[in-house]
DNA sequence: CTGAAAGCGCTTACAG
DNA sequence: CTGAAAGCGCTTACAG
């Protein structure tokens, strides 16, 4: 078998055969190159480069018991707010060598549950979820399996449930306080339906600021102290 | 072992044990339920439902040789055009029982190549790609492995390369023709840099329409015959 | 209709 | 430093 043998390479086994080493050694070149003698390593690397061998993640993950993938379940990717979340999540995932599953629940609890189930099947390392209403029942499965789940844009009732969310009460307070601080006294609040938590929270914040009244009677320059600009059209 | 045994269920083996059947039978219940006797099937299904067993996709895919996942590599998810592509792709994937990897090349050929490689490792069933400039070299690997790749928003030079793209020349022609048909004679064309193919193509289409001149001297009602509205801010 | 067994392609102790 | 071997959790012919 000549060293320029380029016959079909699919396996790590084929690589081993062409390089004249055991598959364990090929695997070591891939995963712990420092444990392999330089000359052996170079030979194997040459074969890999020349044949374009790519390892099979399914086999790798099955053996290792983890997949280095995470799932993102959002209500609607078209919504700029979630698009930004998706973009940032994908960025962060990549930086850590993870791949991201994009799942669009489209407002359907059934789709949401189906996705969560599918993600568990995929053995994802973690899940980012924008829950629709109730925390879905499948969450128990994830919990039981120890799959980390982080709620996005929604605080959780459960004390042991991680979540990230904007403090919209504070946002409303900030906005109204700013207006008060520059001397405004007749303030209008335009929003969407109060059934959207974010909107109701901002109103509560605005009211709190109004109740408190202007703090100090100094004027800040116009255009300064923008507040509450976390509103990215979720309403 | 009582039938209410709920001890840790991780395996299809655990399910088999609890249900008192072989793992082959459990697999059959999952994949070809019609081949299993009703009473056996029901028993197994009961155990699966009660224990919340979820199968391991890594093992399944390794054995089956295919993953039912597809990769989407876009230049920028934040761009509304690609967001819409992502959304639609994800929808279609879900409808066919596939999961979608979201990959944001962010204008970097290196990231693009790395993603393509990662997707090959994942053994994706197919790839949707918005190429940055040149068709990347990794494409050869995909081609060699027979992984289907569809170029998005970009026609390919290679005759055997699938692609979907808007006919922007036609779009520009349509827009200019419309203006001509309603009697406009002094037409301005506002666009981005000509180095963006879409923009240059539209200009070519506009010019073609102007060269051809007004076809018929009839007026269509205002607001009719909108054309070239496929421009979703790619420039 | 059901079970036993092989095998998917890797990684990882374990010997040598 | 290297190789042989077990095993990750499934699916799928193949017997029975």
Question: If you had to describe this structure to a student in words, what would you say it looks like?
Answer:
2 copies of one chain form a homodimer. By secondary structure, the first copy, chain A, is α/β, with parallel strands linked by helices. Chain A has 3 domains: 44 residues, 434 Repressor (Amino-terminal Domain) (Orthogonal Bundle); 100 residues, Response regulator (Rossmann fold, 3-Layer(aba) Sandwich), CATH 3.40.50.2300; 59 residues, no CATH class. Chain A has 9 helices and 5 strands; from the N terminus they run H-H-H-H-E-H-E-H-E-H-E-E-H-H. A 5-stranded parallel β-sheet of chain A has the order 2-1-3-4-5, with helices on both faces. In chain A, strand 1, helix 5 and strand 2 form a beta-alpha-beta unit. In chain A, helix 1 packs across helix 3. The longest helix of chain A has 16 residues. Chains A and B meet through helix 4, helix 5, strand 2, helix 6 and helix 7 of A and helix 4, helix 5, strand 2, helix 6 and helix 7 of B. Strand 2 of chain A pairs antiparallel with strand 2 of chain B. The first copy, chain A, binds a DNA duplex (16 and 16 nucleotides) through helix 2 and helix 4.
Number of domains of chain A: 3
- Given helix and strand content, the structural type of chain A is alpha/beta
Strand order of the largest sheet of chain A: 2-1-3-4-5
Secondary-structure element sequence of chain A?
HHHHEHEHEHEEHH
- Based on Cα principal axes, name the global outline of chain A: elongated
Euclidean distance between termini CA atoms of chain A: 67 Å
Mean pLDDT metric of chain A: 85
How much is the radius of gyration of chain A in Å? 27 Å
The CATH architecture of the largest domain in chain A can be named as 3-Layer(aba) Sandwich
Strand percentage of chain A lies at 5-15%
Low confidence ranges of chain A: 1-6, 223-235
**CATH hierarchy, class of the largest domain in chain A:** Alpha Beta
CATH H level, superfamily name of the largest domain in chain A:
Response regulator
- What is the CATH fold-level name of the largest domain in chain A? Rossmann fold
Main sheet attributes: strand count, strand direction, barrel closure of chain A: 5 strands, parallel
List the quaternary state of the chains: homodimer
What is the overall number of helices of chain A? 9
Helix content of chain A: 40-55%
């Amino acid at each position: 078998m000549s060293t320029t043998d380029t016959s079909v390479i699919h396996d790590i086994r084929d690589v081993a055969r062409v390089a004249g080493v055991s598959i364990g050694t090929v695997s070591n070149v891939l995963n712990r190159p420092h444990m392999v003698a330089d000359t052996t390593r170079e030979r194997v690397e040459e074969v890999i480069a020349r044949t374009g061998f790519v390892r099979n993640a399914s086999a790798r993950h099955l053996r290792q018991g983890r997949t280095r993938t995470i799932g993102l379940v959002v209500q609607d990717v078209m919504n700029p707010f979630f698009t930004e979340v998706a973009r940032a999540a994908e960025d962060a995932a990549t930086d850590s060598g993870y791949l991201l599953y994009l799942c669009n629940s489209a407002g359907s609890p059934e789709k949401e549950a189906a996705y969560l189930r599918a993600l568990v099947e995929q053995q994802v390392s973690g899940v980012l979820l924008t829950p629709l209403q109730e925390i879905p029942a499948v969450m128990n499965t994830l919990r039981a399996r120890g799959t980390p789940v982080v709620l996005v844009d929604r605080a959780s009732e459960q004390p042991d449930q991680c979540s990230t969310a904007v403090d919209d009460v504070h946002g409303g307070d900030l906005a109204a306080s700013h207006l008060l601080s520059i001397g405004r006294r007749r303030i209008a609040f335009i929003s969407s339906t109060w059934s959207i938590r974010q909107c109701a929270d901002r109103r509560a914040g605005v009211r709190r600021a109004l109740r408190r009244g202007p703090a100090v009677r100094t004027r800040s320059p116009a255009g300064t102290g923008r507040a509450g600009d976390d509103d990215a059209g979720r309403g």
